[in-house]
Amino acid sequence: WDETHFGKMGSYYINRTFFFDVHPPLGKMLIGLAGYLSGYDGTFPFQKPGDRYEQHNYIGMRGVRLCRLVFCAFLGSCLVPFAYLTVLELSKSLPAALLTAFILIFDTGCITLSQYILLDPILMFFLMGAVLSMVKCNSCADRPFSASWWFWLSLTGVSLAGAMGVKFVGLFVVLLVGLNTIYDLWDLLGNLSLSLVMFGKHLLARVLCLIVLPLALYTATFAVHFAVLNRSGPGDGFFSSAFQSQLIGNNLHNVSVPE
Question: What is residue 65's predicted lDDT score, i.e. its pLDDT?
Fold first, then answer.
């Protein structure tokens, strides 16, 4: 059922048809982009679960063959190295990291979620990417403001924006990173060898990379969403008449509407 739901939304992006959904737009935009790049034309109706795709090129969005752009399957497969690197960084134990990777490789739930057109593999990719980036940034604490420190801190912010841009469940990883940041700043504040100016730089760096950057990227996804979906569709009725007048094909298109 979910593949019918999100596959249809991928088609909406390809056809530039406006729709409304409870989730933020990033995941569905990426599904639509994967379908577009792999040759899918957005014509499959996605009416009910179990319908055969026949000649429609759905492989790019779903990803069960290596001969195409395997988007969801690729992101799902990234969870294994992400988990391996995270546990290796935290525990410094190769057996523990290998065991973690082994468990994920043979987890039927993870495999199943990653082979269909769903938001879940995209969400998990950004969630685990944020955790890995946070852990890597923590490991660079002894060399703050170095290139690697800036890279992992910025990548954490990008991953936070990605997680929030796919589903609001991403708020939980935002909370995790936020608590970790508060702990780091509290520890730095208690370091008497650190000047207030240097502490201010640490604070500013985290504000820029973990608040400003994610918010900018999150807002940008909505800007792209509204720029791409410029044709009338099933989501028109949820919005004002003034908004509907901007949609091509709507009965109110280019009509002068009072405020």
Answer: 38
Residue 254 located in a structural domain = no
Question: How far is 141 from 143, CA to CA, in rounded Å?
Answer: 5
CA distance 31 to 9: 8
Provide φ and ψ at 248, rounded to 5°.
Answer: -65, 130
How many domains does one find in the chain?
1
CA distance 220 to 205: 21
- φ, ψ at 250 (rounded to 5°): -75, 150
Residues whose CB is less than 8 angstroms from the CB of residue 211 and which lie 6 or more positions away in sequence, other chains included: 157
pLDDT digits (tens, 9 = 90+) for 189-227: 999 999 999 999 999 999 999 999 999 999 999 999 999
Residue 69 inside a domain? The answer is yes
DSSP state of 79: H
Q: Which domain holds residue 236?
A: 2-246
Question: In 170-191, which positions are buried (b, 16+ CB within 10 angstroms) versus exposed (e)?
Answer: beebbeebeebbeebeeeeeee
Which structure tokens are listed for 200?
A: 């201010």
Residue length of the chain:
259
251 domain-assigned: no
**Half-sphere exposure in the Cβ direction for 83 (13 Å, CA):** 19
Residues of the chain with pLDDT under 70: 42, 45, 50-51, 53-69, 257-259
| Residue 255 within a domain | no
Other Cβ atoms less than 10 A from the Cβ of 200: the count is: 10
What tokens were used for 178?
């936020």
